[in-house]
Amino acid sequence: MLNEILTISGKPGLYKLLTRGRGALIVENIDGSKKRFPIQSTDKVVSLGDISIFTDSKEMPLREVFLAIEAKAGKQEIGFDWHKASNAGLIDFFAEIVPDFDRERVYPSHIRKIAGWYDMLVRCGENDFSEPQPESVEEKAE
Question: Model pTM?
Fold first, then answer.
């Protein structure tokens, strides 16, 4: 599911990929407004499924970070006021979720963005963070 959710540089919020058009992607805002519009090839677009967090030993996919937050928050929005939290508060919060995150390469602004994305996905009902299942040959034939 995270492979279909996009972040677009210069635009606030998250977007769901609907289809690919000629030279553009057709996306829909997931915030409830359901506003659809094309994204041109000149825009920087990143799928949440492609984002990872640096840890001391490896890179941790954002999917796993969201699953760890979900285990702590109980499939609800984060019970922590990340909007107004100090940098130290954000780091302490994230250390509970991912204890071995690389403190030199993961900044408080990254943590704030991840918390915001998680809350937005939960609020909009896009909170299936399970591993995508590969399509079987039979499903492709249909």
Answer: 0.85
* Tokens at 107, concatenated: 């900044």
10 Å CB burial of residue 4 (0-12, 13-18, 19+) is middle
CATH number corresponding to 2-48: 2.30.30.730
Query: 98 — alpha (psi -120 to 50), left (phi > 0) or beta?
Result: beta
* Residues 72-93: tens digit of each pLDDT: 888 888 888 888 999 999 999 9
Q: Could you give the CA distance from residue 100 to residue 98 in angstroms, rounded to a whole number? A: 6
> In terms of CATH architecture, what is 51-123?
Orthogonal Bundle (1.10)
pLDDT digits (tens, 9 = 90+) for 92-126: 999 999 999 999 999 999 999 999 999 999 988 88
User: Among candidates 64, 53, 74, which has minimal Cα distance to 122?
Assistant: 74
Q: What is the DSSP letter of 135?
A: P
